[in-house]
Amino acid sequence: MPKGFIYTPTRFMLETSRYDATRADHAVAVIESLKHTKGEWCGKPFLLLPWQEQIVRDLFGVIKPNGYRQFTHCFVEIGKKSGKSELAAAIAIYLLCFDHEQRAEIYGCANDQSQAGIVFGVAKDMIQMCPPLRKLCKFNETKKRIIFEPTNSFYEAVSKEVATKFGLNIHGCIFDELLGQPDRRLYDTMTKGAGAARKQPLSFIITTASLNRQSICFEVHKKADDILNGKISDPTFYPVVFSAPDDADWTDPAVWRSVNPSLGITVEQEYLQNYVENAKVNIADEMTFRRDFLCQWSNNVTRWMPMDLYDKCSFSFDKEQLKGRRCFGGLDLSKTTDTTAFVLIFPPEYEGDKYIILPFIFVPKENMEARVRRDHVQYDVWHRQGFLHATEGTVVDYNYIQTFIEEQGKRYNIEEIAYDPWNETQLTQNLSILGFKMIEFRQGFPSFNPPTKEFYRLILRQEIAHAGHPVLRWMVENVSVDTDPTGSLKPNKTKSTERIDGAVAAIMAMGRAMLAEPPKPEGGIFWYDGNTDTFWRNGKRLPDVPRSKNW
Predict the structure, then answer these.
(1) Is 289 within the bounds of a domain?
(2) Phi/psi of residue 407, each to 5°?
(3) Dihedral in degrees, nearest 10, Cα atoms 77, 83, 89, 94
(4) Which of left, alpha, beta for 386 (phi over 0: left; psi -120 to 50: alpha)?
(5) Cα separation of 105 and 18, whole Å?
(6) Are residues 485 and 528 in the same domain?
(7) CA 217 to CA 498: how far, in whole Å?
């Protein structure tokens, strides 16, 4: 079964709401009076498929006690060629011409005006193929605007620059391919607050999956998925997610059918079968198929790290209990305008203990907003959450990083710091003068292969704890590796999809931790406190240890 959408008309109704069959029937009848505009279906009535009809009935038929619609947002995530653009165009027409809203403002949004014009073009053709509607509407091709004269309402395809404008009074918003949004500004502008003056505004959002889990699209996808799985509640939000589980057999036609409710009608199974046969020998095509037709949020390159296994190592730890504990650092000094990473790895101290990863990522503060737009990554959000350090100015402030590392040296027992000698700077020299043991880490296969494979092995065995640090996760997911004829591995910054500095620094730190001598037994007084179930040495509480250990 698809993950998400369940075919039931009342699942998300409030106890105080009701299902008005007359309103639902009216919406269905209006939409089915329209005609298809393209291909073999052109000119034929737009008869709703069962999944489409369910959405229409729920959106327009579930009514609150005050007589207005319950749902103000609808998120539809479904594979390509399913007919979602046609459904969005028909809903736009209904909001424009049949919702009895005076001077209604309906906007079509996408990554750019051209993309927004796709649904707009379908809506325009549908109206022109319906003589009664055609007589009541005017068309402005320059502005990509349709005006419904009886109520002086309009539907307009807008560019992303609308996010910088204010004063919109939105009755309806058709948001096409949310996955293409580089940041959240346009989505927030069009779906939050701008329709406050309307009694029953509706944002209709359609998309397929993407590879960017740090995007507004994934954020909304996650909200929809959480509602469907009962984790959160939002009675105004109507979620539709046709998505195959990550472990589903992507080559199985039964899986295709479970998440493509239009299969055999708008897209033929033979098309998917041919696609899959090609994808079996091309991992890039496999990832594209998984995203476009199974709505799986997967990366589009051959990745170093299986992220489902990496996520299983999101074990938490107490930073306070790391004070004074031996550790090894990796320092990746990228270009001064890019991200810089300093990562500490704390080796296990007892049987059953894990390697603990503590990352620190730095970015210039002054160009952070530009980087958000350029890289399509939410650096600003991570900064507010405390996962990213922003240094003053337009370049990374190495003086700030030096002071920061000094402070960490007072807090933790940093035995060595590995760095790339090609990027040697005054910073690395200063750290050496301050007493840190700086170790050159060459960027070739001999240096990188052992820790790259060891890091991977520890992830598979769940012997690493990274606490789910989101910036480090993003960087690990981005890593693509080079392989030499002997099977050795090393990360490749050029081939990797985005920034990988944190992952590289972590691998470098792992390389030093692997070579380190085991700690000498610490003397003193050791005891177990049965009242608090804790272990102590020399008056210092130790991290929790397995009770099976023979003390």
Answers:
(1) no
(2) -65, -40
(3) -90
(4) left
(5) 27
(6) no
(7) 18
Cα separation, 122 vs 120, in Å, equals 5
Instruction: Work out whether strand 340-346 and strand 355-364 pair parallel, antiparallel, or are unpaired.
Output: antiparallel
Nearest CA among 300, 174, 295 for reference residue 246: 295
532 and 496 part of one domain:
no
The answer to whether residues 121 and 176 touch, using CB atoms and an 8 Å cutoff, is no
Residue 513's identity, in one-letter code, is A
Task: Kindly state whether residue 166 falls inside one of the protein's structural domains.
Answer: yes
Beta pairing partners, 107 = 156, 173
How does DSSP classify residue 268? -
Pair (53, 160) in one structural domain: yes
State the Cα–Cα distance between residues 208 and 188, nearest whole angstrom: 19
User: 534 lies in which domain range?
Assistant: 521-551
CATH number at residue 183: 3.40.50.300
Residue 185 has pLDDT above 80, yes or no: yes
Average pLDDT over residues 288-308: 78
- The model's pLDDT over 254-289, given as tens digits with 9 standing for 90+, comes to 999 999 999 999 999 999 999 999 877 555 577 789
3-class SS string, 168-221: CCCCEEEEECHHHCCCCHHHHHHHCCCCCCCCCCEEEEEECCCCCCCCHHHHHH
* CATH classification of the domain holding 339: 3.30.420.240
Question: How far apart are the C-alpha atoms of 179 and 77, rounded to whole Å?
Answer: 10
- Asked if 482 and 548 sit in the same domain, the reply is no
* Residue where the block lists tokens 């970015």: 363
Measuring CA to CA, which residue among 164, 215, 170, 209 is closest to residue 73? 170
User: Of 201, 232, 247, which marks where a domain is finished?
Assistant: 247
How many structural domains is the chain composed of?
Answer: 3
214 inside domain: yes
Contact 95, 89 (CB under 8 A): no
Please check whether residue 113 lies inside any domain of the structure: yes
For residue 363, the 8-state DSSP code is E
Helix residue spans in 343-495 (DSSP H): 368-375, 379-385, 398-411, 426-433, 445-460, 470-478
Counts of helices then strands in the chain (DSSP H, E)? 18, 23
Quote the CA–CA distance of 326 and 256 in Å, as a whole number. Answer: 51
Do 489 and 449 contact (CB within 8 A), yes or no?
yes
pLDDT category at 163 given cuts 50, 70, 90 is low
